[in-house]
Amino acid sequence: MKPSLDIRTIKNPKRMKYWWTFVGITIFMTLLYYVAFTQTNLSTRNSIWDAGPLLKRFFWDPFFMPEIHDKIPTYIHAMLETVAIAYAGTLIGAVLAIPVGFLAAANIGGHFSFIGKGILNAVRAFPEILFAIIFVASVGMGPYAGVLAIGINSIGMLGKLYAEVIESIDMEIIHTLKATGASKIQIWVFGVIPQVIPEFCSYALYRYEIDVRSSTVLGIVGAGGVGAPLILAANSRKWEEVGMMLVVIILTVTIIDLISTNIRKRIV
Amino acid sequence: MIEFRNVSLTYPNGHQGLKNINLSINDGEFVVIVGLSGAGKSTLIRSINQMVKPTAGELLIGGENTLKYSDRKLRQFRRNIGMIFQNYNLVKRSSVLRNVLAGRLGHTGTLRSILSLFSQADVRLALESLERVGIADKAYQRADQLSGGQQQRVSIARALTQQPKLILADEPVASLDPPTSHAVMKDLKRINQEDNITMIVNLHAIDLSMQYADRIIGLRNGEVVFDGPAASVSEKTFEDIYGRPIKEDDLVGDVSNG
Amino acid sequence: MDKQKRIPIIPLKQKLFTVGVLVVVLSLYAAASIFTGSSPARFMNGIPEMFNFIINDLIPPNWSYYERVFPALLETWNIALLSTSLAVVFSLPISFLAAGNINKKLWLYHPVRFALNVLRTIPDMILAVMFVAIVGLGALAGVYALFFFSLGILIKLISETVEAIDPGPLEAIRATGGNILQIIWFGALPQILPQYVSYSLYVLEINVRASLVLGFVGAGGIGLILKQQMSLFNYGNIAMIIFITFIGVTIIDTLSTSLRKRLV
Lengths: 268, 258, 264
Ligand SMILES: Nc1ncnc2c1ncn2[C@@H]1O[C@H](COP(=O)(O)OP(=O)(O)OP(=O)(O)O)[C@@H](O)[C@H]1O
Ligand SMILES: [Mg+2]
Fold this sequence. Notes:
The complex is a heterotrimer.
Chain A: H1 15-39, H2 51-59, H3 66-104, H4 106-109, H5 113-125, H6 128-139, H7 143-167, H8 171-179, H9 184-218, H10 227-235, H11 239-267
Helix pairs in contact in A: 2-11, 3-5, 3-7, 3-9, 3-11, 5-7, 6-7, 7-9, 8-9, 9-11, 10-11
Chain B: E1 2-10, E2 16-25, E3 30-34, H1 41-48, E4 56-61, E5 64-65, H2 71-78, E6 81-84, H3 96-101, H4 110-114, H5 120-132, H6 148-161, E7 166-170, H7 178-195, E8 198-202, H8 206-212, E9 215-220, E10 223-229, H9 235-242
Parallel strand pairs in B: 3-8, 3-9, 6-7, 7-8
Antiparallel strand pairs in B: 1-2, 1-4, 4-5, 9-10
Helix pairs in contact in B: 5-6, 6-7
Chain C: H1 12-35, H2 40-58, H3 66-97, H4 106-121, H5 124-135, H6 139-163, H7 167-175, H8 180-214, H9 223-231, H10 235-263
Helix pairs in contact in C: 3-6, 3-8, 3-10, 4-6, 5-6, 6-8, 7-8, 8-10
Bound molecules: adenosine-5'-triphosphate and magnesium ion (MG).
């Protein structure tokens, strides 16, 4: 085969387009970073490299202080409250998400599915912490506000995931059941529920893992659980107490994650 | 010259892929390796550039035992060996040119290559390689926009850009239709003749093997069971290598206008 | 077999198991709802109470308060941007160390995975508390906290993507004599690039939400004024903060989501 084409004539046709995209993104990002570095005070009291002694106060000293040991039961009690808030919130959210999820699923909700989708999108768009603040302000501080915030927020994510599960169910079975003369209730009990239950449970467990973390955080705005004593100790710079609480939190979260992941693996 | 001296290869799971191979392949030869699936064709070819490392014996290339090479030496050694795969192994989202330039990576410093600072000579070489396989006009297209035959040509161009002394091809046409298979085999044959590059090619199809090879090596269960010039080979030879009668599937079909 | 017995539709064992699971789940719920004082009935009461509160106390917001809200929200955004940027840069090399198909050195792979798993159990606020203690009050503590927080998420997502890439091109580049960096840069990176950008944007969204609370522990951003106004029960101002924050978050989410849709 003889050279058919002068290679010097080959030019990258998209070269200009790449160039402009590159320039555009660079200018945009430079602007963002310029604002970030000029408008935000990033100065600090201590350097990150002096963290050693503090980390020792967090994660080493507390193990040798009897007065901290005495407080461990209190911390565990507070952490259990956090775990309970997450549990009550996730469970009620998971139940309430079922009707909303069915409404939002295109194959069940039909023309009305946009209502369900709208509710779910609105809930998810609203940051969880804002829910918590509104609930703390309206029903008062404490775990009850936390359960409300977690429950409502879980509906957003779970409802969306449920709707996706429902949209993927095998409609064949339902048509077959209809053809055998099954009633509406029978169709639901034999045709729909068995198909979706395992996924629903798995997602609810997954959400529970997230909610245990969230309810730790929500305590900080007054929604009950371990967050409140944590912030109290942090404000008075009692780092040994904070450190012990962190240990309790991390251990609990890890244990719950392990159990939940294991159950989830078995379900699906 | 490539010399296998008592080369054996045992996979980590204990399976013996190659058993005491003794072979010598001369410069400029077009060797086709045949054998049933699982016979060890890929293992043999991949042991030459040590994509899998033989566990015993000596593999001499230019008189040096390459199995003793350090990691660094091995990389320098590999850049002189082109390799072509059944599935082309192109980076699909990258442009054709970038894929072909990968053939220069062994010759380009790490930092320079990461910054895409290939020398003009390298870029020209890459474009020339593409031109030799007839797809220079596709240089700036994304690799996944090309047909299978074109993609395999890109991978041939990548190998050519290495300016290799040897090209290894592991079932280069197994994913292609008969006319394209012939076209690609012709490309390989032409490169073999024009540049005097040694070709070692694994093939399934016996008609392709007989048509393009200078020499045929037959493998069964990791052992060489046949080694001779292509001219001396008949269907009977294949039946001996395969240990079973020839079937329709063993042929690509004779389409010589590809 | 006893032919007189009814033939069970669902095997007895499975029935017992299902009932057992239900009993456990519900008794745990009973315990949790007593512990937290939130029976289902009370839960349902909470929702109208919330609407009452919104209508009576939050509306109307104190519009003029925007002067304080905007700078605070900007700081929140900047914390999210800077922490995400750092995480995006650092996550890339570590992701390859945490991907089993690239990092074949088990003595390095397992420790990296272990460290990441530990990192991901730590809630973001806890990191914030720690960094406030370490570097002092201010936005930088927030940047550090969210950097480590998002590093864990991002590395997990990216290393999973890396583990799913087509090994063919890597092999081809290894065969040309490329070293490990060249294999990653030419063979692996182009394959993960769209997901890498998309996950980075996703983490930015997460960080924007996470950075709203940082101020409660003194790590900068809008949380600080939110905390002040809450302790003063200044609902008009709180409403304004919630309103502007909601709009800001929605804008960022929408932009980022539409960008992500175009990428993958
Ligand atoms: N990584 C590996 N680990 C263990 N055994 C392997 C490995 N790779 C290949 N083998 C085994 O070695 C033998 C030879 O494999 P090889 O891939 O060389 O065969 P082949 O002749 O190329 O077959 P095909 O025509 O199907 O490509 C087979 O039995 C195979 O199962
Ligand atoms: Mg093979």
